[in-house]
Design brief:
Blueprint: E1 5-7, E2 11-16, E3 19-25, E4 31-36, H1 61-75, H2 96-108, E5 115-116, H3 117-125, H4 131-139, E6 152-153, H5 156-159, H6 177-193
Parallel strand pairs: 5-6
Antiparallel strand pairs: 1-2, 2-3, 3-4
Helix pairs in contact: 2-3, 3-4
């Protein structure tokens, strides 16, 4: 897969099939925020969205390069471990509840798997009664794709024979087309790789 990257001192823009992804890093080199700039699904890239190389890398090359390599592998359809980048993600500004939810999601929900908000609530807190709070924590997830909140869906998803419609919102947006695309991307790649 071809991708274009522009690296600046503390930010990186990455062109992907779901639009431009902006990665912001702290002065210490930790990933602080991921923003989906223009959520559009495409089969190819528009050449004028991001200027192409040569790439200037200033500062924290290791974290930036690892995150970009991870995105390349993810969009190429490789089944990858989301925990691989945990050392580069800065969750310092999040509430303890949000940290618990996001870390549980990283550890317990595998590539190609989906669970409900209630299921993640039970895994995170031992009770399904926090499902709305879990949904709120995921709505404000500052690391979409890297911390795969797209794998958490409404309970009705499971009663509709896993219909991709009705998965719930994504990144605070009512529209779910990016979430649907990510779920389908992972499930088709996971199915392709089974023995």
């Amino acid at each position: 897969m071809s991708s274009s990257k522009v690296l600046h001192s503390n930010s990186v823009s990455y062109r992907s099939p779901i639009g431009v992804i902006s990665l912001c890093f702290s002065h210490r080199g930790f990933l602080r925020e991921v923003t989906l700039m223009n959520q559009t699904i495409s089969t190819g890239f528009q050449e004028n969205q991001i200027s192409s190389g040569p790439f200037e890398i200033h500062g924290h090359e290791d974290a930036q390069c690892k995150c970009l390599e991870w995105l390349d592998e993810y969009f190429e359809g490789k089944i990858i471990d989301h925990n691989r980048l945990i050392d580069f993600i800065d969750m310092g500004d999040l509430s303890e509840f949000s940290k618990t939810v996001l870390k549980t999601l990283l550890k317990k929900v595998s590539y190609g798997q989906v669970i409900s908000y209630a299921m993640l609530s039970e895994l995170s807190t031992g009770s399904t009664s926090s499902a709305r709070a879990v949904g709120n924590a995921l709505r404000h997830n500052p690391f979409p794709i890297f911390v795969p909140c797209h794998r958490v869906v409404k309970s009705s998803y499971f009663t509709r024979s896993n219909s991709i419609k009705g998965v719930g919102g994504y990144c605070g947006q009512k529209s779910s087309f990016v979430k649907e695309w990510l779920i389908m991307h992972e499930s088709s790649n996971a199915a392709d790789k089974k023995p």
